[in-house]
Request: fold
Amino acid sequence: MSGSVLITGSSRGIGAATALAFGKAGWQVAVNYRHSEAQALEVCRQIEAFGGTALPIQADISGSGEAKTLIETAVSSFGRLDALVCNAGIALPQMLLTDVTDDQWHNLFAADVDGVFFPVRAALPYFVRQKSGSIVTISSMWGQVGGSCEVAYSAAKGAVISFTKALAKEVGPSGIRVNCVCPGVIQTEMNAHLSPADLEALRQETPLETLGRPEDVAETVRFLCSEEARFITGQMIGVNGGMVV
Reply:
């Protein structure tokens, strides 16, 4: 199966790997970015280099207006939208909850929760009219089990999980599937602050004794949007090497 997909926050990391995975599979890919225009254009260039179709779209999806315009642009450019991947998000440095500032809390929820709600709300009318569509949200293993000194991030990603479960029940009768991917420790810029010793300790804690790659998450997302996953909805898929089971 191929179609058209919009991936939020897809200029780098997991989002970029996901855009490339869809592009290689023959999908039309809308590459959303907020600030990283050069990286987004490079992702599009790579997709087009192997014969794919890519469209860079700048938007801050933490606000309803830009999120709505983002969806409308993708639909008008591709003629329809078959899948939405809500990947954009941020994390805070590890810290005690008492050290989290008001701004850090609000910015985190704006990016990680509002950044899911607004694009999904804007896309749903199109999916409902089509009687089809796949939505994949990106949470985290900390959203499943919580992490010490990751309370704010765990809360935001836990909200994404509950959002996914509830929405899957709500829109299933319209032929729309909604699933969530919960990565473990993935080698991306978000974890670049970790020291080699910290990464090695995390590797040893992982039952598969390896750290994840962005491509591991990307292929899982692509599968969930494919026809092969037609009977899968409301699920939390852990891509974590067995660290959370």
In short: The chain has one domain: 4-239. Residues 4-239 form a domain with the Rossmann fold fold (CATH 3.40.50.720).
